[in-house]
Records
---
Amino acid sequence: MRGFLIALMLVVAFMAGGMTCGTTQAIAGDHPEKDPAHVLTPEEFEATRQVYFDRCAGCHGVLRKGATGPNLTPEKMIPKGNKKLRDMLWYGTAKGMPGWGKMGVMTAEETDLMVKYMYNEPPVPPQWDMTAIKDSWKLIIPPKKRPSKPEHNRDVDNFFGVVLRDAGQVCIIDGDTKEVISTVDSGYAVHILRMSASGRYCYSIGRDGKATMIDMWMKKPETVAEVRCSLDARSIDVSKFKGYEDKYAVVGGYWPPQIIVLDGNTLEPIKLVSTLSYTYDTEEFHPEPRVASIVASHTAPEWVLNIKETGQIWLYDYSDVSNPSIKMFEAERFLHDGGWDASKRYFLVAANARNKISIIDVVDRKFIANVDTKGTKPHPGRGANWVDPEFGPVWATGHIGDDVISIIGTDPEGHPENAFKMVAKVQALSSGNLFIKTHPKSKWVWVDHPVSKKEKNRTTLGVFDKANIKAGIFKTVKVADYGKAVHMEYNKAGDEIWVSIWGNLGDADKGKAGEIVVIDDATMKIKTRIPNLLTPTGKFNVYNTVRDLY
Ligand code: DHE
């Protein structure tokens, strides 16, 4: 009876939407062998499970088997002991784990509870199948009731979709006038946005797996459909190949680990594919192979899906969407974020816990290489592409755990000696980098440091000169005196670079919940600020996102 009640509580907690993992097992008292000092009350367990989901699950997995961060199952944790675990949680580690206590994100009490939580078995969350997905689908404004042409004279191509992360909202900003023209609710701790191939719709994915779509042709852009695809997710993309524009969207689930294909006009769920499989190298079954980054091919009706824990890159042919053929490449563990080279033929993705960049060729449909970045935890976002005077076309990544930028040649035709090799490693300002960005029209490469151990670096951007990358940092630009400067994006013209200041939701009345800083790319001077935004993080310009310009 008790087990039934707990399971019921779990499903109710999940359905409530905010968060996602419940527990069927690791409630206080379920482990007779357990040290009484490790026991959490059910309330403490639930509160700590939520903190774990918010702060830890992304890197370590819901089942705590490890990915970007190490395995945290009780047999690994118990030998470490209270002091070591507490210090790691409070101060972070040299390998890139943030110091949650020191950064003011976790309180002393939460830290102590988290230490105890580590000694308990991880709870197994429920499944979320097609029936549940279909039940959650809401077609708010059907296609026939939407405008047949834009209801405004604004340039939709220069709109920015902005993630208001902790508010669980998305806002649309007119890149020409800098006006916030609409703010709509989206998923919990909404994560990324992508634009439909026509540039009309903006799709969001929340950490609760909720996908939403916003129609940017409406006078005031509104959400026209939503669906909960999974209980935990990070990625979404669209069909971009000619003839399939705006036809499909695809969501990558963290939990359950699955791929969900949706109708691009309505978000009606079409197809569900599990990623449960075997690790590419040891061929061991993995219960949680999460879908990390997704990109849409421009040269075929295909998506590139990165299956984190099994280290496989999947090329999903959506031309027969319900009967897909999926080509699997053995790449490397644990795949995370990545992007195209400038030609859109090669896809480069970080296997960040192995310090590698895995590369595939989508035209010849073959795996190319795992390139060692010689740095700890590469984290490119989608990376940055430019033509180096010496090395030719290159793509670059920064690192979470190292103060270096690694540059990889991407032109096997013109520069075969440099192709798919690390051609240079240059000094950056700091570790704690998450994103790197450039634009074909810019002379610069911009790098953020939002998780730097040094507070002052978190709001300072590093700028590198494409003409002389080997010289290291050309200039630093301080953009705020609070929060974290995170994620850069160019406007359509490629002459402004926008960066988010991710503040605290609780500081909204002090004007410190966040803003976007708009920088003149040529002079590197701050041009304007878009204030009073609630915790902005990722931002995506329609024109650049559709074309994968970075
Ligand atoms: Fe992200 C991209 C996962 C934490 C902001 N992030 C991605 C992608 C993945 C991912 C798989 C690639 C999506 C794609 O291209 O399809 N992110 C995770 C995590 O698992 C992790 C480490 C921990 C977690 O619990 O979520 C995590 N991410 C963060 C943050 O803390 C950031 C800075 C703010 C936030 O939202 O919480 C953050 N991630 C972003 C952004 C992108 C992203 C802005 C898209 C970058 C781009 O330019 O495409």
---
Amino acid sequence: MALILAIESSCDETAVAIIKDGELLSNIVSTQIDVHRKYGGVMPEIASRLHAENISIVLKEAIDTANIKLEDVDAFAVTRGPGLIGALHVGLQAAKTLAMLYKKPLIPVHHLCGHIYANEFIEELRFPLLAVVVSGGNSELVLMKDHLQFEVIGETRDDAIGECYDKVARVLGLPYPGGIPIDKLAKEGEHTYDLPTPLKGEKTYDLSYSGLKTNVINLVHNLEQKGLKVNVPDMCRSFQDVAVGMVIDRTIKAVQEYDIKQVVLAGGVSANSYLRAQMQKEMAKLYVHLNIPPMWCCTDNAAMIAKVAERLYEIKLFAPLDLGADPNWSIEDFKSF
Ligand code: KG4
């Protein structure tokens, strides 16, 4: 094993973590959420600038907390994609500079591998494993037959689930990030609005959220035009039932077809209380082990990048210093860069 410093800057969190032989020595996250909240979503240009302002501060705090010297680091790891191109570049430049300065290997890490391996902070992964990755930028069902083997069996055909939560929240006048208020209000509401289930009847593991989002927006506008008030808790409940229902439906089918031993939840939307409860109920019925990571490792952080980097260090998956970021990097190609 080794001493690894990992950097994450793919969206709106600037994060640095240091890990040694599986033990997390520091895990610093600086979130930009308060700035982006004003705009109702992440503003890419502002995100890049804030990463550039914050990266050295976060880096110093991580080094001080871990009480290590940079010259003792064995490798520098960084999220190479997917994510916002300008945001990714800030972390990448920092990692490349450190790797060059200290003449140590550079490890490129796929952001979603990080979300999946965050579960290893809680317990071992058991295969065949199904990772349900639900976040602001991604919605994927990933089959893993062993460590570092990723097969995408289903993905969104349009918007990501978290993005859909955020847009629906905006039309309902709720603050960003929309998943949190919708989750809360849905508990007070009833499923009274009729929202069609996307891809209903199709034999697929894919997801789709753009039509659902448009349905909510149209329904809200129609009610407003008629001078009727939208019952916000009921709309949140109706929307959430369909949005989460799709994920649960695909998970149940995949567990049965691939004889899955363990399901892990990953990404920011795995914080959703309805998704957690439904998943627990349904996986218990199928006698499948479910791992839901605690909140600190559900949202973006560099500890998860460090966790993957340890495995990549063992197989010597190192990148040259002219490495570029890839905003659309597929998890299946995590060894190609
Ligand atoms: O993984 P993440 O932190 O970063 C991105 O991929 O951007 O996920 C953020 C997303 C946001 O869209 C936010 O609305 C959603 O996760 N989210 C939730 C909840 N908490 C955060 N969605 C549903 N229910 C929640 N409780």
---
Amino acid sequence: MGRRIVIIGAGAAGASAAARARRLDPEAEIVMFDKGPFISHAPCGIPYYVGGVVKEAADLAIYSPEEFARERRVDVRINAEVTEIDLRSRTVKVREGNTTNTYQWDKLIIATGAKPITLPVEGSDLKGILTLRLPHEAPVLRAEVERARVVAVVGGGYIGLEMAEALVNLGKKVILFEMMPHVLPTTFDEDMAKLVHDELAKHGVELHLNEKVVGFSGVNGEVRKVITEKGEYEVDKVVMGVGVRPDTDLAVKAGIKLGETRAIWVNEYMETSEPDVYAAGDVAETWNLITGKRMYIALAPPANKMGQVAGANAVKGRFLKFPGVIGTAITKVFDLYVARTGLTERQAREEGFKPVSATIRARTTAHYYPGGVQVSIKMVADEPSGRVLGVQIIGPDKIVAGYIDTAAALIGRGATIDDVFFADLSYSPPTAPVWHPIITAARVLSKGRF
Ligand code: FAD
């Protein structure tokens, strides 16, 4: 038997770490604990399960524990909650059924994910105020909202918007509260977010912007009203979408250092402040490739990659580096695909750049070819250096995903406006106009250079 690698949490990061460690070290003993019944799961699918697009919550788990254990030769323990990490004795305490067992580790990977934030306001502990976290909890969430007529969604971020759509699909009246002047306030500029406002209105979502929720009131312990700075609203259920925070409780108790974002501090090898202890995924801090600053981002693609890096380094030493992120993300809001990468214009200004921006509307096919749609693209660059800092794209076609990924690949490599303009992108009448929309955005941004 080789060294023992213990992994806490079997979501995207934990399962990726286990798979990578096994691939690189056939001898290691790998034990992966999860306090829930699912492993290798996809919380991202919860809104689609609630809205009825995905039929079974179990479909949101990619592998069953048995399959994963067999195929990867990993000792998978479900319904096993790690309650303590002891750094001195190199052990973890695990609650399994009615007993608490102690396991030794040579290398430890913490992949406990993130928790939904709850508002510190009166009434926030009432029943019927619902949060989204893990797929196995989704059937309860769906049963709760199915019984409701009016549902409030608090928060206009990705999860709030995806839930608003799911609830409308279930025939509910939806009231969405966002305390900032526009939805997606931390990821989009206001001019682009307005397109999402129109889409929400088109589908009957009652949108309350600049309206902070200050409390909830209930009857017999069940929520009945949302109280904001501007009024009171009768509702049957409330879905919270005000963000997540890293689930660092175990790490904090063990004395593992947190970073400035309050996620676990890690270096590019996913090493924590403690020898032989790694952290990966939504529980760990990362850094922004554009600003060079530490940041916290809770998204599945970085979680998977950080897990791979942690798993590889747990068995091979300093074998792989995680380079950082630029914050690429996409969501669907009814008939619109809403995508972004890099910095918004506001963020660019706050970070000390001198941003210039161009916003264009472009067709997705040659003008004579049927079936094309119009997409809106905003590109932001730093005027003195010409470096492209960010792109936001919104349009009614999945092609938006391809555009944003193209932009992300370029921006992640430090591309300038010229680099983007001369990127050798593809063309055929059914798939793109001869001037690709991303290139057109760069051309407009170049202010006459091209
Ligand atoms: P998780 O997936 O949260 O896994 C952590 C695991 O640790 C859990 O299984 C948990 O049970 C376990 N655990 C925690 N504490 C313990 C303990 N003490 N003992 C044992 N086990 C423990 N990202 C995107 O990129 N795109 C999307 O569209 C998207 N949509 C989302 C929609 C929703 C509703 C939610 C909630 C998230 C969404 N995300 C999305 C974020 C994405 O799901 C996360 O970034 C990703 O799941 C992080 O993986 P992780 O392994 O770090 O954490």
---
Amino acid sequence: MNRIHQELDTLARFSSSEFPSVTRVLYTQEDLNARDYFIGLCEEIGLKVRVDAIGNTYARWEGTAPELAAVGTGSHIDAIPLSGQYDGTVGVFGGLEAIRYLKSLDFKPKRSIELVLFTAEEPTRFAIGCLGSRMMSGQLTPEQALKLKDKEGGFFNDIREAAGFKGDLNDVKLSENYYHAFVELHIEQGPRLEKENLDIGIVDKIAAPSTLIVKLIGEGGHAGAVLMPIRKDAGVAGAEIMMAVERIAKDSESEDTVATTGIFDILPRAVNSIPKEAYLEIDLRDTNIETRDKALADLKQEIAEICEKRHIKYSIELLNCDPPATCDENLVHTAEKAAKGLGYSTKVMTSHAYHDSLFMAQLFPTTMIFIPSKDGVSHRPDEYSSPEEIDKGVQTLALTLKDVAS
Ligand code: HGY
Ligand code: MN
Ligand code: MN
């Protein structure tokens, strides 16, 4: 099955950064080229492809009972700046390889099997993650999508249309019974499978992400002339907030509370000018919604106190605050049975990363199949899963799909 490894290597070259890093941001030329490459491979094996108004791409293998709800699988191919070549792509190209494998067995699915390339799982362009699956599940309405702007101030609708995606945003939402079940193959993006020397993870819970955008306005001024006691330095306020983000997560009673200030910009960015403005994007998540929401409340409280003390004006926008997902027990069992039947060692586990399955699980019975990540690394150029590990994931996915679609 080295075909998939070659395809993943080819895919990794559709990037605006030097290989082995991958940067493939929503609606950029490299994103569009990668989509075309994928669609070409799907059409080569006779899958019926449709693309929706924002670029979610559906490649369907018609079953013998096409009137029944299909079985879905898939993931994403967009990649955050300077990341790796396996996050998401293993689920898209692994899904294609699983279909090719089942076809090679001359298997005829009763339920259609549909491979999905979700648009924009990563939050890079519009700050919100899972844009495609969020709209498919109705968690993001067309009206809300129209308000999204990228860092250059470009509106979502103009950018998607310029990328060639037209059509009515109202048609993106899927009906409640569109899929009979949904299974996503993905790299673990953490250390557990490798540390416990296990082949396959089956996901029973997916962490609940939230994203805050914090804007700070101080006074700025001359770095030499403005003495310390009268400063209103937005940069230092932002730094204090960044420290509070880390402390609140560390002090949480849940070990799954994680918080990251992934973006921290100050203006005017001149060495001899006191920062007048600061902009922070904060990612706060947990598998437990109570401790996640408590950490959120504590953070908002601390931001208010820090800004009050430093005479800084501030705004907090809660961009998304999603519930965690619980996967379908029967589907977890089916995937576990498939892996064990192949002689693979397995573990039922939580996903600390979020995925499009977080939103598929809001509508359909869902689970995920994980393969190990070398040293638990992801979102870095040295992200790696071996050909053997990928093949085990593809085999497990193929037999799970075969079972559910029969
Ligand atoms: O951030 C995440 O959890 C996902 O990889 N986008
Ligand atoms: Mn990712
Ligand atoms: Mn991913």
